[in-house]
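Hey team,

Filing this mostly as a record. A colleague (T.K.) asked me to run one chain through the structure pipeline before their review meeting, and I want the input and output archived in the tracker in case anyone asks later how it was produced. No errors, nothing strange. Just documentation.

Input sequence:
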Amino acid sequence: MNQEKIITVKNLTKAFGNFTAVNTISFDVNKGEIFGFLGANGAGKTTAMKMLIGISKPTSGEAVVAGFDVKTQSEMVKKSIGYMSQKFSMYDDLTIKENITFFGGIYGLSRIQIKEKTAKLIHELGLEEVADKLVSALPLGWKQKLSFSVALLHEPKIVFLDEPTGGVDPITRRQFWEMIYAEAHKGTTIFVTTHYMDEAEYCDRVSIMVEGVIEALDSPKNLKKQYNVTSMNDVFLKLARNVE
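Output structure:
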């Protein structure tokens, strides 16, 4: 695995009044790595991700993403990354083709690039027959696959996925992870938050957040060995008990 750091985080903190949602977290992510950002709902994962993608200012600490400081160069961060939100982010009242064209424009692609990439994406996903139908007609699993593909339209160095498989069936989840593997194989860094502990097994390394703090960070294999358990779910349960 490439050891070049593409994300560097030092003592990153986000407080809302007296409540500290993210408490002095530090970690690095390597280029081309699938990095899992795990934890129960409310652990601080999404808050941390919002700081890393440049839409929320840290209370303190530092983070550099794709070579840009999240505090002072947030617009450059946004141009260098792809992002797929927890809730489906396409427009239901636009067709599949119109959605791809719209986001291609937002990402600053030329008309020729948008035309070429739209045709390629629709072909790769096998959506030729429904390309002119409203996105609202697609099943949730297909919406998620489309959303992921659109997040990669401008060939970003890093793509951030926030709970990308929430609410989809196990088969679709597996297919989605196959798409993630294929993209990582091309050298794209994947930063994924999830509360599905079995999905941790698919990551090169994972960090586990408990109540705003990173309590563990290593490969799934090493973490299971360290905690003498057979599954990542058991690792998480042990960590949660230790914090209590």
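Quick notes for T.K.: The chain is about 35% helix and 25% strand. The helical segments are 45-52, 74-80, 96-106, 111-125, 140-151, 170-185, 220-226, 232-243.
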